[in-house]
Design goal:
The complex is a heterodimer. By secondary structure, chain A is mainly beta. Chain A has no helices and twelve strands. In chain B, the strands form two sheets. In chain B, strands 2, 4, 5, 6, 9, 10 and 11 form a seven-stranded mixed sheet that branches. A four-stranded antiparallel sheet of chain B has the order 1-3-8-7, with no helix packed on it. The chains are: A mainly beta, B mainly beta.
C-alpha cells in the first residue's frame, strides 16, 4: 500500500483564488510528521510547511496552511490568494517516528502539478 | 553559508561507466540522504547517513554505494551505470534540532 497518496495529478486555479491540494497518508506509527514541498520548473525542492502528528493546531505559513484531519489520515495543503508564481509541482511527504530520534527518512507522494491561470 | 551543494549539475554516462555524485553541506547537519526523482514519481530514498561513519539503505539502494567519512560530505557512487539509473538525484541534510530537510539543487544524470 502506498504510504502517501496524492490523487490529483494536475490542478488549475484562477489567480487570486484559493486552492486545496489533497494528500492522504498511511502509517501505524503514532508519531509522525507531514511535509509539503514545492518544486518549480527550475527543479529545486522548496520546503513549505510541516505538521507534527501531536500538533493540536493546523500549521500555517503565510499563504500556506495545512488542513490536518488525523482521523481521516489526510493532510491537505491550502494555498490562499494564488499567484502566478505558485505554478509548480507540489509534493506531500511523511516522516515516521518521532522527530530527532534518527527517523529522518521522508516518503514522498507522486505530486500534483498546479497551474495558476491569469 | 552555501547550504547543500551538489556537483555536477548535469552528467551523461555510457552504460557500464562509473562515477561519483558529490554532495556537501556546511550547516553541521548530522543527517544526510540521497533521493532519486523519476518522471511521474515522487522522490525515493536511495541511501542515508545519521552521522560520520554510519550509512544505511533506503527504498532503492541497488546499484549505488555511499560512504560518510566527514560530517560535511556524502558522495553517491554508481559503480556500473545502467539506463535505469537515468534520473534526477537530490541530496538533502537535516538535524535533530529541526524537522526541515534542506535539499541541494539536484544532479540530472542520463545513462545511454
Amino acid at each position: 500500500a502506498q504510504k502517501i497518496t496524492q490523487t490529483q495529478p494536475g490542478m488549475f486555479v484562477q489567480e487570486k483564488e484559493a486552492v486545496t491540494l489533497d494528500c492522504t497518508y498511511d502509517t501505524s506509527d503514532p508519531s509522525y510528521g507531514l511535509f509539503w514541498y514545492k518544486q518549480p520548473s527550475s527543479g529545486e525542492m522548496i520546503f513549505l510547511i510541516y505538521q507534527g502528528s501531536y500538533d493540536q493546531q493546523n500549521a500555517t505559513e503565510g499563504r500556506y496552511s495545512l488542513n490536518f484531519q488525523k482521523a481521516r489520515k489526510s493532510a491537505n495543503l491550502v494555498i490562499s490568494a494564488s499567484q502566478l508564481g505558485d505554478s509548480a509541482m507540489y509534493f506531500c511527504a511523511m516522516r515516521e517516528g518521532p522527530s530527532g530520534a534518527g527517523s529522518y527518512q521522508l516518503t514522498f507522494g507522486k505530486g500534483t502539478k498546479l497551474s495558476v491561470i491569469p | 553559508n552555501a547550504g547543500v551543494t551538489q556537483t555536477p549539475k548535469f552528467q551523461v554516462l555510457k552504460t557500464g561507466q562509473s562515477m561519483t555524485l558529490q554532495c556537501a553541506q556546511d550547516m553541521n547537519h548530522e543527517y544526510m540522504s540521497w533521493y532519486r526523482q523519476d518522471p511521474g514519481m515522487g522522490l525515493r530514498l536511495i541511501h542515508y547517513s545519521v552521522g560520520a561513519g554510519i550509512t544505511d539503505q533506503g527504498e532503492v539502494p541497488n546499484g549505488y554505494n555511499v560512504s560518510r567519512s566527514t560530517t560535511e560530505d556524502f558522495p553517491l557512487r554508481l559503480l556500473s551505470a545502467a539506463p535505469s539509473q537515468t534520473s534526477v538525484y537530490f541530496c538533502a541534510s537535516s538535524t535533530a534540532a529541526t524537522y526541515e530537510q534542506y535539499f541541494g539543487p539536484g544532479t540530472r544524470l542520463t545513462v545511454t
